[in-house]
Here is the input.
Amino acid sequence: MKNLIIVRHAKSSWKAPVHDKDRPLTRRGVQDALLISAKVIDYMPKTYIIWTSTAKRATDTALIFAQNLAYPIDCIVYKDDLYTFDEKKLEKTIKACSNIFENIILFGHNEAITNFVNKFGDVIIDNIPTSGFVSLQFHTDDWKKIKKGKIKKIIFPKDLR
Here is the structure.
């Protein structure tokens, strides 16, 4: 059994005069990441790895989650391949995961995230919002062979406010 938790990075600012990859989180983004990360503890597997895009908004979101989940910050895996908006690239990166890992928590970007979840999940979601949390389960022991999985939990900030 393989389990994948996908989290879209928290709300980021378009106002800062920086490259897209360097955009920081907004105050609301930080608040939403704190809110969601505090609520997902009961839905987390006992062991997992955290992968994050190298974009600042994704890494900052991953750090907030790691702190709330008591996950060692120095164990977070930063992957340039996750800085993508294309679900095929996202799929390729996930399928390349070593099978020694049963559970991955991944922090990334839309359109890739929503399109990936709609391709591999059993529930259609119009749009995964910033800080959105989706847990998927796949009935395989090989990441390369993931197919249609089952969505186990969806948590969006608007559901908690």
About this structure: The radius of gyration is 14 Å. The chain has one domain: 2-159.
